[in-house]
Amino acid sequence: MQDTLNKEKAFQEKLAKLKKTPDDVKLNCEIAILYVQRHQIEKAEPIRKKMPDDMDINRAFAIFYLSKNEIEKALKISEMMSDDVKLNYEFAMTYLEQEQIEKALPYSRKVLKKDPDNTMGLLPNLHLEIGSTYASMIMSSLSSKDAKKYGKNAVKYLQTVIEKYPDSNDAFENALYCLGTTYSDMGVMFSIGDFDKSIEAFEKLMNHATDERIKEVLPYEIIEVKQLAAYRAAQDYLGVTFSHTGDFDKSIEVLENWMNHTPPDERTRQAVQNEFKKIRQLAAEAEKLAAEAE
Known about the structure:
The protein is mainly alpha-helical.
């Protein structure tokens, strides 16, 4: 509350000063930006008309329009300052939030090109958001080819945060967490080996996490990945051409061990019971075929 009062007092003092020095360029710029931030566009507009080429004012207007999803208005401003790092970053983040990654990438490339050394501190979050957006597309993709591509891209951007920006605090921890869930999703869809990478990422995060909420949830995430790995392993046994009934026994053994050591919820338990039925039915059919062959 006190902070809000102090900010309002400072703003009123700036307005009073502007009345005395109406041609003060810096003060006009500061007040215009403050009006935009307060969503008082109509009061900021006259100042912008007086200073149509001021990049800071134009950027503030463009970011405001992006926040209101008035993309066309923001694009008109962007055309006047196409190399502005901050504005390109805001465009990229806006499109990423909307999961329009193909529209986001041209803007992100401009940010990477103009600020490769991360002097503005924007790159960790940018890489994180691109990676997490790709990750969110894995399970909903229409083909395994697309899913693999999204997974590969997600890992690339998330690893960039982890390897290049280990001191980026929240971005680093969120990248590790997202990497763990990404590998878990890839394990479900592609390779059981990805579950090991998922657990590795989560365990690394446990050693670095400063966020208590993340620390509390990680053990459960690791348990869930191990459950998925066991379940996937059992399904892989079902996916082979059975030449020995022992393959069926092994599948049941994996599922039983999983249920005994990490009891699932009732819905999952029922799904596993259904798997038991399928396995036993297949085993019976295999035994019948083997007997007929003799």
